Amino acid sequence: MNNKTKITLLAALAVALIGIFVFVDLGSSWRYVLPRRAMKILAIVITGSAIAFSSMIFQTVTNNRILTPSVLGLDSLYMLIQTFIIFMYGSAQVSTLSKNMNFIISVGLMVMFAGVLYKLLFKREGRNLFFLLLIGLVMGTLFQSMSTFMQVIMDPNEFLIVQDRMFASFNNVNTDLVIVSIIAFAAIGVYFTKFSKYMDVMSLGREHAVNLGVPYNLVVRRMLIIVVILVSISTALVGPITFLGLLVVNVTYQMFKTYQHKVMIPAAMLISISALVGGQMIVERIFTFSTTLSVIINFIGGVYFIYLLLKENKS
């Protein structure tokens, strides 16, 4: 089976799952249910696409298949921003702030953090990308500790609001951000086309990319900024998800024995969408909301991550 046929089948599977999710068991009050399901499925599609897209290009620039963008500490930074806003201004004040404004502030601060981090890293020669990952890991731990400190001393009622934002939830998707997320995602897609020609070469590693004429540092900076914005979009919509990107990208590598990103990126996005929509249907119709999809994803992803570590160790 060639790659074109595989992508066609994945697209058909994704469309079929979306159709079942939206149209099955609508009931007599379909005028009320249908628009809400449509917005929810739109948010899930954007989330799945953003996670797959960001994980794929992140693994390409790091040339490592067991890393996810969460290594940079972006999830922890997002939670620190949310905790700090509620800690300083209180939930009553936060409720007056529109969700779109909160989203823009959070994305802006995360991009600024990434910009400062990359500037400090790349202004000196000899520092490689793994130094950036180490710094990101340390900063992520610091952000998490600061968030925990504020959560411990804040009012319990305020903490409950923070707690709602600490865990990813596909049962309560932030549909108010769908429109701004679509605009941001489309802009990222257009911007990425300028650098997409370098991706196949970047996957060969830094030395090969430099020798073949790729402006390596420039491309890495631009790709990491794209990763930051995509992670911000997915986190703002449903909350932090650690292992989904790792899962879908490695499944894509197993299904498509190719280096071409024009094949792997859309394939990873389709796999991610199918996994999220299918998983959410299982949570709603089989488990009747007794668990959440993020718990299942993190459990399967954690086991798969250990498997990848053992496999890499043997090789």
UniProtKB/TrEMBL annotation:
InterPro entries named among the record's database cross-references: ABC_BtuC-like, ABC_transptr_permease_BtuC
Pfam families hit by this protein: FecCD
TM helices/strands, residue ranges: 7-26, 38-58, 70-89, 101-122, 129-153, 173-193, 237-256, 263-283, 289-310
Main location class: membrane
Originating organism: Paenibacillus polygoni
Protein name: Iron chelate uptake ABC transporter family permease subunit
The entry's keywords: Cell membrane, Membrane, Transmembrane, Transmembrane helix, Transport
Family: Belongs to the binding-protein-dependent transport system permease family. FecCD subfamily.
Membrane topology: Multi-pass membrane protein
Domain of life: Bacteria
Location within or outside the cell: Cell membrane
